[in-house]
């Protein structure tokens, strides 16, 4: 008889089922930046970015309303959505740190409307928030793309099993 592999985390309730299952869903990585109510840069990594429509150009992302960046997203009209490539892995890791450390360093500069703009990303979009839809302790945010630019192409950056990867990396 085969031995049971006890090294895998076990599902014990609805929250662990959610967390363990979604860790196995590979997702593209983006960063959303804004200015907080105090004028300081705010931002976070997101794996929930999705296109909503091409005409007019709209996208959505989700976030927890207890997240440190929520006050900025809740109280601003504009954000910058950055699409990351593998060369932006360090920036993704930086933007996943404690909020007080996310904008330390040279990985960003003020961009359109004074919003934090990450350097050397494959693409970025200036977006106007057109809807915030609270759901339990989270929110779905709908944005309309107003401007943007393409940077140099790059291999996609993926988030899977709580780590950043490039396509073809082995788990």
TrEMBL record:
The keyword Phosphoprotein does not apply. GO terms for molecular function: oxidoreductase activity. It holds the Pfam family Flavin_Reduct. SUPFAM superfamilies: FMN-binding split barrel (SSF50475). InterPro entries: Flavin_Rdtase-like_dom, NADH-dep_flavin_reductase, Split_barrel_FMN-bd. It is an enzyme of class 1 (oxidoreductase). Its EC number is 1.-.-.-. Coiled coil: none annotated. Keywords: Oxidoreductase. Residues 22-166 form the Flavin reductase like domain. SMART domains: Flavin_Reduct. Transmembrane segments: none annotated. This is Flavin reductase family protein. It comes from Lysinimonas soli.
């Amino acid at each position: 008889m085969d031995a049971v592999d006890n090294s895998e985390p076990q599902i014990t309730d609805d929250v662990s089922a959610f967390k363990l299952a979604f860790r196995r869903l590979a997702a593209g990585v983006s960063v959303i930046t804004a200015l907080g109510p105090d004028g300081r840069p705010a931002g976070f990594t997101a794996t929930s970015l999705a296109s909503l429509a091409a005409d007019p150009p709209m996208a959505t992302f989700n976030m927890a309303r207890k997240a440190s960046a929520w006050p900025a997203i809740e109280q601003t009209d504009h954000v910058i959505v950055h699409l990351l490539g593998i060369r932006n892995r360090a920036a993704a890791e930086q933007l996943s740190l404690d909020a007080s450390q996310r904008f330390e360093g040279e990985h960003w500069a003020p961009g359109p409307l004074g919003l934090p703009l990450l350097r050397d990303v494959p693409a970025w979009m200036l977006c106007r928030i057109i809807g915030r839809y609270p759901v339990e302790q989270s929110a779905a945010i709908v944005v309309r793309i107003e401007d943007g630019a393409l940077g140099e192409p790059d291999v996609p950056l993926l988030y899977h099993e709580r780590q950043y990867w490039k396509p073809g990396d082995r788990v």
